[in-house]
User: Fold these one by one.
Assistant:
Number 1:
Amino acid sequence: MSRHARADTLDDAVRQLMQEAWDLSGEDARTAAELDHLYGRLQEPVRLAVVGPARSGKSTVVNGLVGEQVAPLPLGDGHDVVTWYADGPSPRVTAWTADGAAQELATTRSVHGLRLDPRPTRRSGITDLRVAWPARSLRHLTLVDTPGHDSTADGHRAAGEPAVAEADAVLYVTPEIRGADLQILQTAQDGPVAAAAPVNTVIVLTRADEVGGGRIDALLTARQRARRQQRDPAVAAMCTGVVAYGGLVALAGRTLSDADFTAVAAIAGEPRDTQDVCLLSADRFAGDDSPLPVDADLRRRLLHRLGIHGVRLATTLARTGCATRAELAAELVRRSGLAELREVVNGCFIERRTVLKARTALAGLDRLARRLPGQDGVHLRARVEQLLATAHDFRELRLLAAMRAGQVAFTGEAGTEAHRLLGGHGTDAAVRLGADHELSGGELWDLTADAMHRWQQHAEDPRLGLHQRRAAAAVVRSCEGMLVALGS
């Protein structure tokens, strides 16, 4: 590609900039290897790092997104390493050491999930595990499960830092948002590329089913709390969204067996007084002297898989209308928050994979430019800054971040529409327009033209402030891009 070739899309522009970097690097082997790596990343699925404090529930997030119990995978010496989950034709686990050596590991699958043979991994110097797993959810996504940190910024930098730095986006997993968590996320936003293309993070509030001691309305309460925290300007400035997630309930719904359903239905058939007494606590439910018509081993298995809240919820659902295993499984998944988590991952990350991978590539080019001598480095850094400043995809990200942080605001329905048209809920044209996916291309075109006309009026409205008019002009540009795409 000529260095002066016309770049029609952000992806084209990044590739063109890489070609310029290759031309500037001359015969430097290290720089050429880095550019080859960055170019290869553009072809790969989005890398999504799952990050959070130790014992925060990261594995339940991974399991929910994959759809099976594949995490965690501790080594034979008991410690965790960075674990990569990618799509593959058959299950396969490969261990990598710091010197680049690879070894395929023996694995087993059971009711408790995927497990490693611990013997070959003791004192082995393994730094990464690569798991190939056949899953539709991994076709456009590589999950990177990182070791838990100690809830401090220093701990975060020590735990899986290279994997996080290489990630295109982050799921930050925590039972509750604390000041230390926001400090960690702030640290991750350091650097010129992160400032120009902000916030590639979603916060997942795990242990949602433990709110209020696992009450029957725990998941609903956790979802309401997530919405309140998302409106907090300090939180909104650090992430694109906050999602409440009950991992045990989600995984139980995805893997509910006929035996599990039969046991739940038997408990639900008992008198309410008996159920209420036995479900007061985990100890009463699992005790050998329980009057429930399910043996103790099976009750303990249910408790392990669903938690006390999940058992209460499943029993209530079975008693009030979920008459089959499929109905109960679907309702558990729906209430767990898994569907919302998947929607957020799809809308914020998978649909924006081009801009997220471009962001990663530009961060790499910026680091490379700082090593190039003299005017070559100055030129490449200037070109990176120019692309970050002018590409509309990055303008959308900056404006969405400013709106979430309250720096730019529109009143009433205008604010909701602006957020949607800028791709805050997803980049598909129907989603941006808040329209039915069944509409024809011509109908979507008409809706887009109407929206563009409204926002052109906002952009020229003298009653609005300068920041609002500039934001309105950016919304107009998003509508123009949709019209071009719908007309092609």
Number 2:
Amino acid sequence: MPSTTIHFIRHGKVENPDHLLYERLPGFHLSDLGRRMAEATADYAAADPQLSDVVAVYSSPLDRTRETAGIILDALNKVRAERGEEPLELQTDSRIIEAGNEFRGKRIGYGEGALWRNGNWRLVRNLWKPSWGESYQHIAARVGDFAQEKVREYAGKQIIAVSHESPIWSYRHLLETGHPEHNMFLRHTALASVTSITYDSETGKMLSISYADPAKDVR
């Protein structure tokens, strides 16, 4: 049975001294720690027989994911050069972008512009169904659309998709439980982690899911 694997990788830690909910806002880049996290995952990918054999690298269009993907791509292209293979180029896809959120630009905690001021807390009615932004159903559906398209396009091969916590976990939760709704505080998607989903290349059915956290000890 031919299979296709998509390795969903979360971006590294972001430089955010004002503790803002940055969502899809521009100008939020990897911190020094975030770059080290991405480098740890890049080293992990380059050393892994499966990950080092990917044929495409995708990213959400946001700065932090593109920077993470770029670091990983550099490591993979060094391996490809040693094999005499052509380098891969980064491709972006808006279907794996961060979830839309009505709280973008708000501060986490206290002070002017804090999340809980001006009645914003009233939007948080149900952690399993985010009334404050894009629904988990919509998030999982767009990631699933991306995945099924790539399973057909890269049948029998492997690719990387650098995305964000909510899209990765909402989609994984849908595949594992049949519904994308979940408690955001119970996600298992660490920064720079790798969630590998393998599909039947012919039917698109999920065969297995594995998880790795190469950057867990990075400080």
Number 3:
Amino acid sequence: MFHNIKAYYYRMMPHLTQADWQVLEERLTIKTYKKGDCIVKQGEVCNYVYFINVGFLRFYKLIDGKDISTGFIGASEYVSSYDSFLKRQPAFENLEVLEDAELHCLSYDDMQFLYKHYPVYQMFGRVIAEQLFIWIVDRSNELLLLTPEQRYENIIKNEPELLQRVPQYMLASYIGVTPEHLSRIRKKMMTKSIDIYQ
């Protein structure tokens, strides 16, 4: 039942003991969601961190009525609206299920209990925070320094699964363009590829 998340923890912290794992397992709950479900809603406080056992999710914001995708997360990863979860304030984003999902859920109170009584989980929390910080910096630099064409090239190179799993309008907002602009980028790149092989 908890094979994937257990493997994840032991990969991150090989020194984790069975007793340490057991106390975490006792606090995990399992929830299933259908495609289209909204796990975290903009304006509500996020009370859980989620490990994605099965499924595919995306973050998006509604800004002046526009749906702006800000991230995509697949299986064997942790996800949450972290600022809302940690500050106990309303979330600025939505977390939506793009493919039917099974999530392992840990509440805010249970996480605080683990931090207080089990130092190994403080270490784990720090590692996750560091990874999240690196992702935010990389994403910010990408939006500030790269052209839309370069962002799309990065998706092809680093996240090619998004091309099959994410609708074009979501991909377009993720790289900061309209769907029509994304279509032009794709056509331009296809033309380049044809020219190279002629």
